[in-house]
Write a structure and sequence with these properties.
Its cofactor is Mg(2+). There is one protein chain. The chain has 200 residues and is of the alpha/beta class. Helices cover 60% and strands 17% of the residues. It is built from five helices and five strands; from the N terminus they run E-E-E-H-E-H-E-H-H-H. The protein has a five-stranded mixed beta sheet with strand order 3-2-1-4-5. The chain is elongated. The chain starts with a strand and ends with a helix. The relative contact order is 0.16.
Length: 200
């Protein structure tokens, strides 16, 4: 499976494509950063992000897109820009019918390093080790994008299996309730018939 990981942002938007193989094997395909000038208006900056993401989707043809979820930031303006860039990415992927999954930073850190509290340096080190990279992806947004793709490749199969198990469990509960209702209805009918017979 090929995944495009995106660390959204207006000033820097990290992009990373990773192929997943058997087990937990992963292979790097491409990594980069989209930059938009801070002095441009918001619409132009979002268009710049969208155009580059579209180019990556056309060139690398991922089967899924993993985007970092905006969790919490002290700077509201930065958080809004990040969320808007993530929305543009999701829209571009949705237009191609690609599944888009949002992962929190702690989920990504836990998947790649084993700790949801790892810092950026630890994430970058593990990304390099897992993908066999000799050169550190720069800036950190690029490494984060690769980490997102790896996280998705490792977490999504488990999430799908869990969702399927929950759906099966819900169906069993529905079937059980239906049987109980049918049994109660049949018991009520039998009791009524007995009472009618007794009166006669």
């Amino acid at each position: 499976m090929r995944v495009l990981g995106v660390d959204p942002g207006l000033t820097r938007c990290g992009l990373g494509v990773v192929d997943g193989g058997k087990g937990r094997s992963v292979r790097p395909v491409a990594v980069g950063v989209v930059r938009t000038p801070a002095d441009h208006d918001l619409a132009r900056r979002l268009l710049g992000v969208a155009d580059e993401v579209e180019r990556w989707l056309d060139k690398y043809r991922p089967e899924a897109v993993a985007v970092e979820r905006v969790f919490a930031q002290h700077n509201v303006r930065t958080a809004m820009g990040t969320a808007q860039a993530g929305g543009v990415v999701a829209l571009s992927a949705a237009r191609r019918g690609l599944p888009v999954v949002f992962h929190t930073p702690s989920e990504v850190k836990a998947a790649v390093t084993g700790s949801g509290r790892a810092d950026k340096a630890q994430v970058t080190t593990m990304v390099m080790r897992l993908l066999g990279l000799e050169v550190k992806p720069h800036p950190a947004d690029a490494a984060d994008a690769l980490a997102l793709a790896i996280c998705h490749l490792w977490r999504e199969p488990m999430r799908v299996r869990l969702a399927e198990a929950e759906a099966r469990a819900a169906e069993l509960v529905r079937a059980h309730k239906a049987r109980l209702a049918a049994a109660a209805k049949a018991a009520g009918t039998t009791t009524k018939q007995n009472e009618t017979g007794a009166r006669r």
